[in-house]
Here is the input.
Amino acid sequence: MTKFFQTLFPLIAISFLFPVAIHSEVKPQQDKQFASATQTPHEHQDHEHKAHDHEKIEIRDGQPVPQVELITYQDAVKGWNLELKLVNFVLTPENVNQTNKLNEGHAHLFINGQKITRLYSNWYYLQSLPKGKNSIKIVLNANNHGELSYQGKTIADTKIIEVQ
Here is the structure.
């Protein structure tokens, strides 16, 4: 395991023990070509922040529709490797919290309904999961973290991993 992941994993584990809400002073800007009438900006300090309360950003008919496929591989040693196959979507970590641009952004990883992290690349390693059935969900998000949707459905993929 690289030094980066050896450093990152304990921080993720600690976040389960000590959840902290982090609020940014950066106000997302809307791109008129990208935003739709269903997108409503909100102030984070005005409410308790839950995993799914970012606004939805509807991809309009006639625009290329992003797609995500989640593929899970059991690691040969321990854990699971997650691969994201993307169509009409580019991961742009350098633009997070910036102006939305059509079909770019990042993904959010949810395990059993709990947001775990943002994903900025096509691969992610999960060291462990609890026993039983685990729902692994990937949601595509715009630069301002709004969930992308098309025809009212969130652009996402979910897989179930059962741990004995």
